[in-house]
Design brief:
The protein contains 18 helices and 5 strands. With 507 residues, it is mainly alpha-helical. A 5-stranded mixed sheet has the order 2-1-3-5-4. Helix 5 packs across helix 15 and helix 14 (318-337) packs across helix 15 (348-366). It starts with 21 loop residues before the first helix and ends in a 10-residue tail after the last strand.
């Protein structure tokens, strides 16, 4: 059976029984993808969600700093946090069906785990007929078992959704290229592009050009229009918000660049390698490189992807593989060469796009041309993959424990603030004010830094009306306007409480 872009599975496969129904073939092709997606969801619920559960009513223990910003835009738990220039509204829309009426972090995590499992299934399914089902299933398993994929699957963060949107968009575009009458694929192109643009417009701007070039090169005007329309749904909203909140698109881009340390010539390859040890944010990214056991898969990834291209050329599916490799390359460029720090989640779109060529290469290594296994190669590959899975699990387990402990401290600080009378409506400033304020149900404000949103006079004016506190590292001085406020130690922070507002404030 051919697997080129112009050879979608139609009719009876060579060697198949004459009485075999097409529906049974479709079912067999779907079952492995369903199993992978279900296992991915279950792994999140077992390995990640329990480590970031809830701590009493109203506390969303486990939401990270960025997550509290996205969730607070629709949550009744706390007022909206400052929404800085690099952020986009896609995650807020994603969490709204749960966060708009429930403050349970466990419920939100379960919902996101289910959604990410469904998203992986749909993103892989569009590639049926372009690659063998077993290649797609292995590709899904390779992507789903990375610690970064498991950790961010149930997280209110955008990068994994950009990855799934890119994978689905590329697959649907290839299906349109093979059959211009495939309306479902056309809408899939638009949906994948919209998902990327709503989640991270700047990432979409790097991934979309190869897709658009392929559509225009093949004179698939409708596909190009659907792709552009999908991107526009997210970009237009981003531009409108740029004018209303950031002084225009150019100023928003400049501010986003400043917050990210200034985009320019920066070699971040070694930073990304240092982050593989489980550093959610590597900024500044210093210290020795992790043990080669941890980084081996990352070093081998481009080599296996190149091998996948060689396999694809021989199998007659060069175009799909080449498109995946080109999109992965453009997605990786800004995070490897233009930014001065690293976060493993930044490269999730790259990992998703490379997963299919890598899986194709692995199957070629362990099978003969006639489809039979190469026993020795299969055993060695299975052992290496088992070791890889063990490394991913160890890194994930340590990361979950570490982040859960950090966020317990935020919840304890919020509880201390309530005990001291800082209750909604209230205001927090200073170190880690944004996540602690979300846990405490307060507003947050800063007079400087990446989240500057207030003036000293404004904060002091608010302190005369509602309970206000400034947070600082233990022993460190608070902001200048809070030097005379009363200090109380808490979990890893000092709390500086403003004098009670007139009338006593909250009791």
């Amino acid at each position: 059976m051919a697997h080129g872009t112009n050879a979608l599975p139609i009719g009876r496969q060579r060697g198949a029984p004459a009485n075999q129904q097409p529906g049974s073939r479709r079912t067999r092709g779907i079952r492995p993808l369903t199993a992978v997606a279900a296992a991915f969801t279950l792994a999140q619920l077992i390995l990640v969600v329990p480590g970031v559960g809830t701590l009493g009513p109203g506390f969303g223990l486990g939401l990270g700093w960025d997550e509290t910003v996205y969730v607070s835009q629709v949550s009744a738990q706390a007022p909206p946090s400052f929404f800085s220039a690099p952020r986009a509204r896609g995650v807020t829309l994603l969490v709204a069906p749960v966060a708009s009426w429930s403050t349970s972090t466990t419920l939100l995590r379960v919902y996101l785990a289910l959604m990410s499992g469904l998203g992986l299934y749909l993103a892989l399914r569009v590639w049926r007929g372009l690659f063998p089902a077993r290649v797609l299933a292995l590709a899904g398993a390779l992507f789903a078992t990375l610690w970064v994929t498991l950790f961010y699957g149930p997280a209110a963060m955008p990068n994994q959704w950009v990855a799934l949107g890119a994978l689905a968009c590329a697959g649907c575009l290839l299906r349109v290229r093979a059959d211009h009458r495939d309306r479902a694929a056309l809408w899939g192109v638009a949906a994948g592009a919209a998902l990327m643009a709503w989640m991270r417009p700047t990432d979409a701007a790097w991934i979309a050009p190869p897709l658009l070039a392929l559509a225009l090169a093949g004179r698939h005007v409708r596909a190009a229009l659907f792709l552009t329309g999908g991107l526009a749904t997210g970009v237009v909203q981003w531009v409108i918000e740029a004018y209303t909140s950031h002084g225009g698109p150019l100023r928003r881009l400049a501010e986003g660049s400043r917050i990210q340390g200034g985009l320019g010539r920066n070699l971040a390859v070694d930073d990304q390698m240092r982050a593989l040890i489980g550093r959610a944010l590597c900024r500044p990214c210093t210290g020795p490189l992790p043990h080669p056991v941890i980084t081996a898969w990352w070093v081998l990834l481009p080599l296996l992807a190149a091998a996948g291209l060689a396999v694809a050329v021989r199998a007659g599916r060069t175009a799909p593989t080449l498109l995946l490799l080109v999109c992965a390359t453009t997605a990786a460029l800004p995070y490897l060469f233009l930014i001065g720090y690293a976060a493993p989640r930044f490269l999730q779109p790259v990992y998703a796009l490379l997963a299919i060529p890598v899986a194709d290469a692995l199957f070629h290594l362990v099978t003969r041309p006639d489809g039979r296994w190469r026993p020795a190669a299969a055993v060695v590959t299975a052992l290496l993959l088992t070791g890889h899975l063990a490394v991913q699990y160890v890194v994930l387990d340590r990361l979950v424990d570490r982040t859960a402990a950090d966020r317990i401290d935020w919840a304890r600080t919020a509880a201390d603030l309530r005990r001291l009378g800082v209750r909604p409506p209230c205001l927090l400033t200073g170190t880690e004010a944004i996540p602690v304020a979300f846990y405490a149900g307060c507003s947050s404000a800063a007079t400087s830094g990446n989240n500057a949103s207030a003036t000293e006079a404004g904060i002091l004016g608010t302190a005369r009306r509602v309970p206000t506190a400034a947070l600082s590292p233990p022993g460190a001085p608070p902001p200048r306007y809070a030097r005379t406020w009363t200090r109380h130690p808490s979990a890893g922070l000092d709390l500086h409480l403003a004098p009670r507002p007139a009338g006593g404030g909250q009791g």
